[in-house]
Amino acid sequence: MLRERLGKDLLIFDGAMGTQLQNAGLKAGEIPEVYNIEHPDIIIDIHTRYLKAGADFITTNTFGCNPLKMADSGYCYCDLLKAGVQNAKIARDQVNPDAYIVLDIGPIGQLLEPLGTLTFDEAYEMIASQIVMVKDDVDAVLLETMTDLYEVKAGILAVKENSDLPVFVTMTFEQNKRTLTGTDPLTFVNVVEGLGVDALGVNCSLGPHELKPIIEEILEYSHIPVIIQPNAGLPCLHDGETCYHMSSDDYAQEMISYMHSGVSVVGGCCGTTPEFIAKLKAVAPLHVSKRDVQRYTCVSSQNQTVVFRGQVVVCGERLNPTGKKKLKAALKEGRYDECVVEGIKQQQARADVLDVNVGLPGIDEPETMVKVIKLLQEVIQLPLQIDSSSPVAIEKACRYYNGKPLINSVNGKDEVMDAIFPIVKKYGGVVIGLTLEDGIPLLAEERLAIAKKIIHKASLYGIPKEDIIIDCLTLTASAQQKEVQETLKALTLVKQELGVHTVLGVSNVSFGLPNRPLLNRTFLTLAMQAGLDLPIINPLDQELMGTIDAYNVLYNYDQDSTHYISNQSHTATIKPTTISSFSLQDMILHGLKDEVQEKTKEVLQTHEAMEVINEIIIPALNQVGQDYENNKIFLPQLIQSAETTKKAFEVVKSTFQVDSQVKGPVMMCTVEGDIHDIGKNIVKVVLESYGYQVIDLGKDVKVEKVVESYHQYQPKIIGLSALMTTTVVNMQKTIQALRQSGCLCPIWVGGAVLTQDIADEIGADYYSEDAMASVTLLNQLL
Amino acid sequence: MNKKAILQYLNCPQDVDEKTQVLIDECIDEVKQCAHFKVTYQPFTLIHHPLMIKELELTLLSQDLEFYFKDCDRCIVIACTLGVQIDRQIKYYEHIDMARAIVFDAVSSRYLEECCDDFEKSLNLGLHTFRFAPGYGDLPLALNRPLSRVLQIDKKLGVSINKGGLFVPMKSMLGMIGIGATGQKSCLSCLRKENCELRKGGQRCYVKD
């Protein structure tokens, strides 16, 4: 059995296929996989030579065998895939029947959402179809040369949900120790190991020497077998051709130290040949060297991992609608952009992890959770905490999350643990365990007992205690004053006796009492002293954050006070006084959006709200519009003024109901296939500054989604944007589908390639050239 | 970086207000920090009537290109990118500071051109034409697919072409340069010399060799 040998016997993979094919006559632009059918003898010969060189594994010539990459090959990808496996079988049967055939799957060749347009489900389906087709004829699957962690996740799930085959995953790192989409080695290990692969490692891009820091980091953190397949040295571009200069002897020499440091599987990538594999075989020890790898609690996004090493880790609590009217309304009305802005603010305020809770009556929690997570992950680097009481929402969120999530939560009840632990195990999360069953026990010892129960039960599901963080539960001082100390005592007990990390929602302590920040701050200090690792707090409360900075200095976690100095030395910065002398109107004209809110509040003390709108904001905005039309100001200035106006409006609106001032709603999107939405976003900002309510469906919006949203939101007008001629086609399809569904509201279009003629041709009602033209158009129409 | 060109991209005059100038300077610094420039290229032989890349047996159906490449016997296909972090950062600013997003976008576009110009210079190509990208003039956008496959830009640069035919990451480019042109790069050898806005304003769209 391959799984039994992995991690014990040192196993040898084959080397490059592409290099061999080029030597056999593959020309530039030819598709290598076509050789599976047109020149099977060449493929069989390459496999044969690798087997004779001593390879335990041969990799099928199926790197790009997916429907997208094979579209121009003249063959169905299925036939190329099956032929690839068949060729490997023939070679194996002839040379070494004990050798393993590995199904090779390279990157799909399209970047996944949110930066690309390929969805996670599409990637999953594509890889699943490959697995189902040949799973009975291969011994393992290799997902290799991967650069996108999200694609890796889709691939692993596709293999594991459709077969029992061992999965090996190798990613490709640049010299800056990151993949092309920004994943670092620790994050890769943390996420992929959590997803339950059989071996992980690195291939391609660099030679064995240059890969050293990356391989060392992988060996430091990986608890599972490590596979390495470097290139034959650093690639050189000579006359447009990629060349590799390393000799097979030098290659084998460089690889020896890795084989004695605990690497389990070795092989070669670009530039390597059967000779390289024979030399590797000659120097390879028979067995894998033992590694002693420490276990840490780690949560990851796609390109950042937070390791719990004793320092206090801050979880931002603000993405939770409980008690937040504005966020509730935003979630209900589908204005997810506001969630993203809330996330960004917390990231800027130095949160380490962000809690995401979208639980509201009347909304589809699983679907909303996935939407918000995807939007957050487009711009926010921090790992997320998936917070829900619904196992369905948790499962869906874990599936579509890109990284290793923190999951909030389980408690001591068996039925809850039985529902959540399988999800934690399958998707590789870190889970919070609440020390309660039917109620919260009053005594610390009782909470410790529940924590023990949770940790034990998790171990039965194969979840190590490093993947559990225990919540000792904060009680409210105004109601249960005596028990506040029990929480602190429980923290110490759990930490000392169970050796796990701890979490608390800090602000619960102060409900019902005045000056809540003071109590929160004091309780946080006591809790950190008692062993709290993960306070869930409002990071925008800078005094609370300052308390943590101070604690990290005093406990020597912040060596040389580096973070403290950088965070705390700017607190007394004084803003330039000149700005305060600007009038509100001037602030709008000059686009001073950071200062406008204070100024608006000041003006509201002496003026009625309607007066501020009609006599200051609107005239200022009109002036901005005129200046733009007359080329006195330009796009960046127009936008700054628009954003400033929006902020001033927000302040005025918070003082009274100005429903009569809200115009619209206007629904906008960038059409299917198009990811360039900066133009649409410019128009949105300017429209909002003129008081229009804009429902923004985002970019790459499927035709059906636009139709569905039209019926849901009943907008007064629909705006569609597209950048390229290739996506204008989808604009036309969207307009047709809207009309067929009975939509009578006007549709206006814009975008770089659009003209009035094209707009007429595709059936749009109106065309506008830029943001200001859109305002003029909408002012006339609505 | 050439700030004049950035202002041109933004459709702003050269004497735009100081606040915008500062914004541009800040974005230049940040783009340089954020960008991960990667490039690859491959030389090919050209044959004429009709214009073809010989090794790929690929016909280049473009009158514009036939005009520009008329004296060329070889060409270079070059592809490059600034990487995904630039896209992420533009998106980030779109959420919190749209004006900065616009400037950041323009600066990135310019930076990609300048990085590619520098790389092009380092190749010492001798006499050569401007760089032409599919999608400009009558050079079909669809050429991006076969040329990208040959250059393996997904593997080498991490760049893919999405369903809509657009490069992802967005700040990526593929262009063709004719080698062996008898004249230097010059506005006078450009098809659009009579109606070029840049030329009217006394500027060029290319870097002098």
Reading side by side through the largest sheet of chain A, how are the strands ordered?
A: 1-10-7-6-5-4-3-2
Radius of gyration of chain B: 18 Å
Mean pLDDT of chain B: 88
pLDDT < 50 stretches of chain A: 572-579
Helix coverage percent of chain A: 40-55%
Quote the CATH topology of chain B: NADH Oxidase
Structural class of chain B: alpha+beta
Task: Give the total of domains of chain B.
Answer: 1
The largest inter-chain interface, given as chain pair and residues per side, is: A-B, 62 and 58 residues
Strand content of chain B: 15-25%
Looking at the overall shape, the CATH architecture of chain B is: 3-Layer(aba) Sandwich
Proper CATH architecture of one domain in chain A: Alpha-Beta Barrel
Gyration radius from CA atoms of chain A, angstroms: 30 Å
Please name the fourth-level CATH homologous superfamily of one domain in chain A: Homocysteine-binding-like domain
Spatial order of the strands forming the largest sheet of chain B = 3-2-1-4-8-5
CATH topology of one domain in chain A: TIM Barrel
Summed up, the helix count of chain A is: 31
Q: How far is the N terminus from the C terminus of chain B? A: 17 Å
Q: How would you portray this structure in words?
A:
The complex is a heterodimer of chains A (782) and B (209). With 782 residues, chain A is of the alpha/beta class. In chain A, 46% of the residues lie in helices and 13% in strands. Chain A is built from 31 helices and 25 strands. Chain B has eight helices and eight strands; from the N terminus they run ααβββαβααβααβββα. The mean pLDDT of chain B is 88. In chain B, strand 1 and strand 2 form a beta hairpin. In chain B, helix 2 crosses helix 5 and helix 4 runs antiparallel to helix 5. Chains A and B meet through helix 13, helix 26, helix 27 and helix 29 of A and helix 2, strand 1, helix 4, helix 5 and helix 6 of B.
